[in-house]
Structure to design on (242 residues):
């Protein structure tokens, strides 16, 4: 049975004006046990924020890591997305990709840093995402290395456009990635086609390592589902936050 301490979560809902997109964007912000505004905290920014909280159970997992595993308390910012335009925002070929990237770097992060005591060094910010959210997190870090250096990619959707962007880079030695993909993801159908996610992730890993990125990479039994990613989230968080 789940320990009731893990379920006592503080989650604040916020809304940010994203002028770059011409709309408001909702955030879910997890504050750790013992949260104190005079302290400072590492921060994890999650794409598909609603799913990370609802299906990934990231707030409960964070409580468990902090209370039982001795992980330093951290803040989580879940950035919610309208699934009807998700590919347009997360894929590098999407027509909202640049505007959404700007929304994060110039509007969401400044909002969070004005209102919450998060640390501002690149190695104190973690980007996390599943599928297209994983590949988007890498692209955002590649474009903004003064802001980000750590990426969690859960079954990243490294389509050809993403692989080409990685291949075009010469030096990615400032980046550190935790990548995992399920062995049962070899024929997964998305809104843009059917892909072998295992092959895509292997190719991305090779390209990243050849350019100096540090990659912790796993292939495990699992499907392209939150049931798989949820089990893998604690180890990914510990890797960067321990």
């Amino acid at each position: 049975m789940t320990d009731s301490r893990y379920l006592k979560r503080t989650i604040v809902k916020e809304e940010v004006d994203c002028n770059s997109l011409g709309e408001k964007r909702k955030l879910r912000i997890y504050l750790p046990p013992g949260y104190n505004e005079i302290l400072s905290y590492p921060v994890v920014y999650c794409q598909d924020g609603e799913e990370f909280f609802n299906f990934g159970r990231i707030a409960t997992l964070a409580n468990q890591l902090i209370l039982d595993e001795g992980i330093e308390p951290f803040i989580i910012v879940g950035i919610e997305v309208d699934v009807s335009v998700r590919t347009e925002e997360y894929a590098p070929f999407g027509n909202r990709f640049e505007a959404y990237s700007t929304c994060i770097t110039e509007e969401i992060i400044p909002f969070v840093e004005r209102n919450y005591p998060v640390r501002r060094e690149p190695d104190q910010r973690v980007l996390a995402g599943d599928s297209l959210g994983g590949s988007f997190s890498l692209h955002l870090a590649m474009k903004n290395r003064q802001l980000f250096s750590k990426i969690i990619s859960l079954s990243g959707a490294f389509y050809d456009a993403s692989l080409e962007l990685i291949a075009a880079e010469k030096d990615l030695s400032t980046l550190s990635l935790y990548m995992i993909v399920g062995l049962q993801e070899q024929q997964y159908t998305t809104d843009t086609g059917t892909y072998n996610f295992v092959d895509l992730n292997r190719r991305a890993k090779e390209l990243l390592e050849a350019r100096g990125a540090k990659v912790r990479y796993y292939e495990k039994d699992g499907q392209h589902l939150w049931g798989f990613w949820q089990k893998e989230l604690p180890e990914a968080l510990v890797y960067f936050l321990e």
Residues 4-241 form a domain with the Rossmann fold fold (CATH 3.40.50.1820). The chain is about 40% helix and 25% strand.
